[in-house]
């Protein structure tokens, strides 16, 4: 169904482009389009099968669906999703479909790969580890070995030293 077509999920794109308490359509309409809460009809999933019983309810359902689709398109235009994704793809050198899916780490990896290639470094192939299917090991948290911490030696350094703690790496 989607082969050869780019899928642009505004929820994924909005998470990268704006800060919001929630990224559902109603909240995005309020935050981006400045639409009041009462301007958009929010249907509960239980209501939808009931709307197929009468022709006028089906027309209402179609109207609500078309309105939501128009809101999605407006949000996409207001956030400039496609042009920004194209620029990011051109800079990173990856595939646009992956950019639209929000793979930040993959974009960083491609940036590094291109930078190393320009410097004529040989980059090793990416290694993929097989995931174990054993259910007993999947419940445990992954363990990481920490960095080597040396005991300080008094008087070893006679100038200033810089201590950097990369908290996000742990």
From TrEMBL:
Extract the Gene3D superfamilies matched here: Palm domain of DNA polymerase (3.90.1600.10), Ribonuclease H-like superfamily/Ribonuclease H (3.30.420.10)
Q: Enumerate the InterPro entries for this protein.
A: DNA-dir_DNA_pol_B_multi_dom, DNA/RNA_pol_sf, DNA_pol_palm_dom_sf, RNaseH-like_sf, RNaseH_sf
Domain DNA-directed DNA polymerase family B multifunctional intervals: 95-170
Q: Lineage in the entry? A: Eukaryota, Metazoa, Ecdysozoa, Arthropoda, Hexapoda
GO biological processes: lagging strand elongation; leading strand elongation; mitotic DNA replication initiation
Q: Which Pfam families match?
A: DNA_pol_B
Q: What class of enzyme is it?
A: transferase
Whether Nucleotidyltransferase counts among this entry's keywords is yes
Tell me the gene name: DPOLA
Decide whether keyword Ubl conjugation is in the record.
Answer: no
Molecular function terms in GO for this entry? chromatin binding; DNA replication origin binding; DNA-directed DNA polymerase activity; nucleotide binding; single-stranded DNA binding
The protein here is known as DNA-directed DNA polymerase
What is the scientific name of the source organism? Anoplophora glabripennis (Asian longhorn beetle)
Q: According to the lineage, what is the superkingdom?
A: Eukaryota
**Might you report a single GO cellular component term?**
alpha DNA polymerase:primase complex
This protein's UniProt keywords: DNA-directed DNA polymerase, Nucleotidyltransferase, Transferase
EC numbers, comma separated: 2.7.7.7
